[in-house]
Amino acid sequence: MNAIQFLKNEHETAKRTFGQIQAASADQRAALWAKLEPELKVHEQIEEAALYGPVAQELGSSDPSLTEWQEHHHEEVIELEALIQEISGLDPTADQWMEKIEELQETVEHHVQEEEGDIWPRIRQVWDQSKLEHAGEQMETLKRQKMPRAA
User: Rounded distance, CA 30 to CA 32, Å?
Assistant: First the structure.
C-alpha cells in the first residue's frame, strides 16, 4: 500500500473512533480513548519518519512549501501532543474531558484537511509510485514495531 493510502486509512480510523467516543456513554469513553490515544501518537511519528522527513530531505530548497510544511507539521504535532496529554489527565466521565476531545477532534480534522487537500497532491507531483510504495511499506513496518497488537 502506498504511503498516502496508508495515512488516509489511518485518518478514516481516527474519524470513526472520534465518532464512537462522541456517541459513547461516559463509562465507555475510557476504553475508546485507550484505543485512540496511542494510534494518534504513532500516526504522527510514522508520517514524519517515513514521509514528511524524507520528502523534505530529498527536495531540500527546491520546494519551499514542502519544507515549510514539515516545520508546520512539527508545530501541529506539539499542539496535538499537549492536548492528548491534557485529555489523559482528565476524568473521561467529566464534561471537561469531552470538551477537550472535541477540541482535539477539530485540531485533527484541520490537520487532515491540510494534508489531504494541499500537501499530498504536492507530494504526488514530486514522488513517483515506487517511492510512495516504499514509504508505505516503511509505515506498515513502523506501525507493527510501535503497536504490535494493532498490526
Answer: 5
Q: How far apart are CA 123 and CA 100, in angstroms?
A: 32
Cβ burial 128-145 (10 Å sphere, 16+ → b, else e):
eeebbeebbebbbebbee
Cell matching residue 89: 489527565
Tens of pLDDT along the chain (151 residues) come to 999 999 999 999 999 999 999 999 999 999 999 999 999 999 999 999 999 989 988 887 777 777 788 888 889 999 999 999 999 999 999 999 999 999 999 999 999 999 999 999 999 998 999 999 999 999 999 999 998 765 4
Q: How buried is 95 (Cβ within 10 angstroms: 0-12 exposed, 13-18 middle, 19+ buried)?
A: exposed
